[in-house]
Design a protein that fits this description.
The protein is 30% helix and 35% strand. By secondary structure, it is of the alpha+beta class. 22% of the residues are buried.
């Protein structure tokens, strides 16, 4: 006998994409992801395209993947998609050592994070097209 299929964690009108172990701190990634929260996907893509931050290029790829998941896997209309949630979770921290004077060493922390973007389909109002 096989296990029961787990219920879907997202609502029926939502799709997500996750990029794991990004070589940047969650704080820096969170600043970029806060920029696109609540925006329509085309506005969010434009904001990420013209942002000078390194994390913006990675976030753009995750957003494009979430849009593709919504269209291909969940049959959502991409014209009505909005970025409902975007966040960065802490991942592993690589610990390295840097040689210092008099035989001592200094610790270097290299943080990583997981970037998650959830897009949701918002229904168009009846008065609008």
């Amino acid at each position: 006998m096989s296990k029961q299929k787990q219920p879907r964690r997202l609502a029926e009108n939502e799709a997500q994409a996750v990029l794991r172990t990004v070589r940047t701190s969650p704080q820096k990634a969170g600043l970029v992801l806060d920029m696109i929260k609540g925006k329509k996907v085309e506005d969010a893509l434009a904001a990420l395209t013209f942002s000078p931050k390194k994390t913006a290029k990675l976030a753009k790829g995750v957003l494009e993947s979430a849009i593709a998941n919504a269209e291909n896997n969940h049959n959502l209309n991409i014209d009505n998609l909005v970025v409902s949630r975007a966040f960065a979770d802490k991942s592993i921290v690589m610990k390295r050592w840097h040689a210092r004077g008099r035989g001592r060493g200094a610790r270097i922390l290299k943080p990583t994070c997981h970037m998650t973007i959830v897009v949701a389909e918002k229904q168009a109002k009846e008065g609008q097209k």
